[in-house]
Description:
- By secondary structure, the protein is mostly helical.
- It has a domain at 5-85 and 131-153: Winged helix-like DNA-binding domain superfamily/Winged helix DNA-binding domain (Arc Repressor Mutant, subunit A, Orthogonal Bundle), CATH 1.10.10.
- It has helices at 5-19, 27-34, 38-50, 75-83, 110-127, 131-137, 140-153, and strands at residues 54-57, 63-66.
- α1 (5-19) crosses α4 (75-83), α1 crosses α6 (131-137) and α2 packs across α3 (38-50).
- The mean pLDDT is 90.
Amino acid sequence: xxxxxxxxxxxxxxxxxxxxxxxxxxxxxxxxxxxxxxxxxxxxxxxxxxxxxxxxxxxxxxxxxxxxxxxxxxxxxxxxxxxxxxxxxxxxxxxxxxxxxxxxxxxxxxxxxxxxxxxxxxxxxxxxxxxxxxxxxxxxxxxxxxxxxxxxxxx
Length: 155
C-alpha cells in the first residue's frame, strides 16, 4: 500500500505541535521548517482541522494547534483524515466474471479474506499508536532542536 506524502507531513506537523506546547504554528512556518510547498501543506492541515485533529486560529499570531491531547490522536486518525476512510483493497469479484461463474463463489474468496485481515491488522496497529507515543519514542534532543528551529523563525 502506498500513502501520499501528506500523511508524513501531517504526522510531523502533529508531532511538532506536541513539542511546541500549545504555540500556534502557521502554514508558512511549517513550510519553512520542513521545506514544503505552502499551498499543498495548507490543504493537508485543513484536512486535519476538518477531522478535529487540529484547530486553526486566524491572524498574525494565529496558526494551527492540536485540537486534543497527543494521547487522544492516533496515527490512524491522521491517516484517515488525509487519505480517507476507504479500504486499501477493493474486491471487485473478478472470479464471478467469465463464462460460467460457479455457485461456490457466493462466499468471500480467500484473496479478499486475506487482504481484509491484513488491512485490519494494519489499521489496528496505527489506531494503537498515538502522537504521544511518537513524542515518547523520539530522541530526547529532537524536541529541543525543533523548539530552537521554531524560535529562529519567530520574531
